[in-house]
Amino acid sequence: MESLILFILIGIITSIFNKMKQPPSNKPVRQKPIQTASPASPEPVGRGRERVERERTGRREPRSYKEPVKEAVSSIQTRLEDKKRETESTYSSLQKQEERYSRKLEAHQNRAKRIRENSGPILDFKNEDDIVKGFIFSEVFGPPKSKKRHHQK
């Protein structure tokens, strides 16, 4: 409670000093410009004017789209061919990469197979000492006691 009163007093004092530091603003107040109503123009502006004139006359002008369509088709066709070449090149590079990786995988598998065939068993349990070694190795290489399931204090 006492700390809350202290914070309130500090806030009041700082706000008083901040108000004293700020000089009264003598800036001129900027007024918004007064808009006068403009007379409505009888003719529409831009494309609307042409449409209104065509509607009055009742006839339409024929449009010639053949040349722009041919240009658009040729540009689309060139872009398509470029994309096709690009995809073919990426496909061929990916095939080469796949062949390299498959050769590496085969080499690693052959090496692992040779290692498995050449190495004998790590422990042979032929006598009692080997069984004791097995228990010792299980304690050494196994999880720590704190990670074991039934070990809780």
Automatic annotation (TrEMBL):
Bias (Basic and acidic residues): 46-70, 79-88, 96-109
Region (Disordered) location: 21-113
Designated name of the protein: Uncharacterized protein
Species of the source? Rossellomorea vietnamensis
